[in-house]
Amino acid sequence: MSDAVANEGTAAGGTRWLVTGAGGMLGQEVVAALTADPAAAVTAATRADLDLTDPAALLAAVRGHRIVVNAAAWTDVDGAEADEAAATVVNGDGVRHLAAACAAAGALLIHLSTDYVFPGDAKEPYREDDPTGPVNAYGRGKLAGELAVAELLPDSGYTVRTAWLYGAHGRNFVATMLKLAATHETLDVVDDQLGQPTWARALAVRLTELGRAALAGDAPAGAYHGTAAGQATWYELARAAFELSGLDPERIRPTTADKFVRPAKRPAYSVLGHDRWSAAGLPAMADWRDELKAAVAAGTFAVGA
């Protein structure tokens, strides 16, 4: 890790946080949320700064930090299907190395995982302790990372599963739909997959809240579900994004997932329950429509750009 990045938080005082994957959509939001907190000293490590598959580098990077937020991952779902071993080296083995480094340093770990660890065949929201059963390579790799955190950090490891993330940084569904509005009169969007659209900024704030609760000894270790409340299909999300952005939602037309064949199977049902937040003294996150409205109002998206 470069000296510039490693030293970023040391002079500021306060509790030292390390954010891995700091250049990604969520990572950037976590760094921004922590930078605004005078009680936090932030070390932001991008993929170029810190290799999750290098145990020695992880040991050195974690040393001196009280808490780590791991937003680094192999996120190419279809790419994982083509090369599961390579994806699991990052999402499984890499997380094990990071958990071991946290154990050695006595640091807490908040690790980001995914709804894809579940099979997607439920009829009601998945509880945090429901049986897992990934249907694709990406999910299997992420589950391996979850298991490593639970094994190596039983009292100081926090896994936060999220889904359907969108935000100001990087590629995401909402930004893509609003960009396509400039070149497509109508858009066919899948209406038979259910999930919880979640604003990266809102999740970043929740992660910092969880971290503070964990540091204070008020949050039990284990799995939490970091998704917005409510549920929607991709079609409903696209219509809401159009409407909130001043576009005609009738330009969005419903279709089915079988019209878009992709290498990796996607869960049909990705709605997660949020009961465990109460154990950390925190409420569930806001409804997805409220989050989306706030994101659009904040100028998160450039319509048609």
Description:
InterPro entries: dTDP_dehydrorham_reduct, NAD(P)-bd_dom_sf, RmlD-like-bd. GO terms for molecular function: dTDP-4-dehydrorhamnose reductase activity. The protein is of the alpha/beta class. It has a domain at 3-164 and 197-229 and 269-285: Rossmann fold (3-Layer(aba) Sandwich), CATH 3.40.50.720. The chain has helices spanning 3-6, 25-35, 55-62, 77-82, 84-105, 137-152, 173-180, 200-215, 234-244, 288-297; strands at 15-20, 40-45, 67-70, 108-114, 157-162, 165-166, 187-190, 194-195, 198-199, 222-225, 232-233, 252-255. α6 links the parallel β4 (108-114) and β5 (157-162). The longest helix has 22 residues, at 84-105. The radius of gyration is 19 Å and the shape is globular.
How much is the radius of gyration in Å? 19 Å
CATH homologous group name of the domain at 3-164 and 197-229 and 269-285: NAD(P)-binding Rossmann-like Domain
| End-to-end distance | 35 Å
The outline comes out as globular
Spans of 5+ residues with little confidence (pLDDT < 50)?
Answer: 1-12
Q: So, CATH architecture of the domain at 3-164 and 197-229 and 269-285? A: 3-Layer(aba) Sandwich
Which sheet architecture does the biggest sheet show? 6 strands, parallel
**CATH top level assignment of the domain at 3-164 and 197-229 and 269-285:** Alpha Beta
Kindly report the CATH topology of the domain at 3-164 and 197-229 and 269-285: Rossmann fold
Q: How large is the share of residues in beta strands?
A: 15-25%
Rounded mean pLDDT is 95
Fill in the keyword field for this structure.
10 helices, disordered N terminus, 305 residues, six-stranded parallel β-sheet, 16% strand, alpha/beta, two-stranded parallel sheet, globular, Rossmann fold
